[in-house]
Specification:
232 residues, four-stranded antiparallel beta sheet, 49% helix
Length: 232
Amino acid sequence: MLKATLEKVINEDMAEIWTILAPDEKRRVAENLQIHTFNKNQLIYAEGEQPEFLWCLLKGKVKKIKEGVSGRTQILRLIRPVQYFGYRAFFAHEPYVSSSLAFEESTLGAIPLNLVEELIHKNSDLAMFFIHELSRTLGGSNTRIVTLTQKHIRGRLAEALMLLLDSYGYEDDNSTLKIYMSREDLANLSNMTTSNAIRTLSTFVTEKLILVDGRRIKIVNEPQLRKISKFG
């Protein structure tokens, strides 16, 4: 059963990185790959810890968070299958500056970062893969800084909803977001208080942009929400 699971992970889920490895490199990754399952809200790694693994989300949803002033939490990034994370601090030779938690029950693959570093020294294509990934992440972070500091509350919440849509998509009805978030998490993603998130959601409902049923959010007018997101 474990062998079959590993073969699926390597051949399907991690195909993007698998195709640029030489046969001997593939063998070493397969020998060292670990599969982990995390429960909802379970910590994957914590701020201040030393990075040990390159993490790959295979199934589920993960959030990267950082504690700010007065213990207020900010969601920095959403991870979707199949994305790699948890390696920037290793290459920077520093401890983690943020934490990572599972939004829901999630399955992850883990490869020792010492092995990844060794492979990078020998495989320029693998090095370029990580340069590309880090560059895209940095670009996204720069854009988020502007969003969280300059847009009004409506723009920030609309962007958060579009980020959830772009990351996880719709349910089978093609309108309900495929992630159920608490109001607190929505606020933490949008850099606002929970009460402001609740009020703004209610305003969006009144304007017939969304429908809300508990933690389920149905997008009624996606074009208008994207417009609000863009112009703040």
